[in-house]
Amino acid sequence: MSTVSPQPFQVQRNDRPAPDARRAAALAAPKFGTVFTDHMARITWTVADGWGARRVEPYGPLSVDPACAVLHYAQEIFEGLKAYGHDDGSVWTFRPRTNAARFARSARRLALPELSGDDFVESLRALVTVDQAWVPRGEEMSLYLRPFMFASESFLGVRPSQQVDYIVIASPVGAYFPGGVRPVSIWVEREYHRAGPGGTGAAKCGGNYAASLLPQTHGYDHDCDQVCFLDAGTKTFLEELGGMNVMVVYADGTVRTPPVSDAILEGVTRSSILTLLTDAGHEVDEAPVALPDLLEGIASGSVAEVFACGTAAVITPIGRLVGDDFDVTVSDGQAGPVTMSIRAELTDIQYGRRPDRHTWLHRLV
Ligand SMILES: *Cc1c(COP(=O)(O)O)cnc(C)c1O
């Protein structure tokens, strides 16, 4: 535990912020990741001097040298969390220390410098304080926060970058399912993998997402919304979606999710849901889920619900699983009761509508 308070961020105000009307329009109907607030938080690190000045500066394009290392070798990591406006005007985020710890683990795996948890949380607080007018107030709306870190040295040699930039940007987002929560179809990918033993699957890095894009187009070709990946060794066990963990609810109330490994990212939503399910009396089982067993369970009725979970969509019910030799419907394509109740409980906590028993909320403004 550090006993000194985190270094303050110096604010350089944007003297050309978005006009009120433009901000109001963006907040009324936000489209994920398209509009950004007036500022960004930033810290530059160099091997010689470590982390430099903490600052909040006007949002704007970066000037990047064509030899910038990240453009060539993808030494980059990111995080994703949300700021929630509560009815009394306060603004909160959810388990930011957990994201900070994961960011540090991702940094280690990608040979990037670790940012302290204090700097991580303070960067969010500083940015959201300056841009608090950008926190949307409607149902299931939030300000999505995207901290990221990348190799910013201009050098083509293959070694860890000696200069790195940490930046946080923010974007107002609306309900992930504007017309109400709707089960999605999942393509179970057998040809490609997003991660493998000893790889970067447990790190939140852009490269994992790059590897998921081609299989994602396979999914679209089969009329599916998203892709579920299998383990690279045996192509038998479910790992996760490109950006969400996966859970199976059995008819007896047991909930099973694949255990985290070096090929599965440890989601904050995953961990929170496991806690809430345990509180609610469900048997929670972190154990491998074999695809043949899952398909059999869906056919026999022993599998009642399947869902995916992550910060962006919270919980996405899975209504259909499609692979090269199967196409099965889970629970008549309706979102199941466990899926919907756990989704309601988690979002109620995040928006301050239910007691925060586990002190997961962290006040920003
Ligand atoms: C971000 C991410 C998740 C979900 O993590 P949360 O902390 O719940 O948002 C799951 N899988 C992958 C691969 C991810 O990148």
Largest sheet: 10 strands, mixed
Shape category: globular
| Element order: H for helix, E for strand | EHEEEHEEEHHEEEHEEEEHEHEEEHE
Derived from helix and strand composition plus strand pairing, the structural class reads: alpha+beta
Report the count of strand segments: 19
Report the portion of residues in β strands: 25-35%
The residue fraction in helices comes out at 25-40%
Structure annotation, total helices: 8
Indicate the mean pLDDT: 96
Distance between the termini: 23 Å
Instruction: Note poorly predicted spans.
Output: none
**What compounds are bound to the protein?**
pyridoxal-5'-phosphate
Rg from alpha-carbon coordinates: 21 Å
Keywords:
single chain, 365 residues, alpha+beta, ten-stranded mixed sheet, nine-stranded mixed sheet, 19 strands, 26% helix, binds pyridoxal-5'-phosphate
Overview of this protein structure:
Helix content is 26%, strand content 28%. It is globular, with a radius of gyration of 21 Å. α3 crosses α4. It has 365 residues and is α+β, with helices and mostly antiparallel strands. Strands 1, 2, 3, 4, 5, 6, 7, 8, 9 and 19 form a ten-stranded mixed beta sheet that branches. Strands 10, 11, 12, 13, 14, 15, 16, 17 and 18 form a nine-stranded mixed beta sheet that branches. β16 and β17 form a beta hairpin. The chain contains eight helices and 19 strands. It binds pyridoxal-5'-phosphate. The site of pyridoxal-5'-phosphate has 13 residues, from α6.
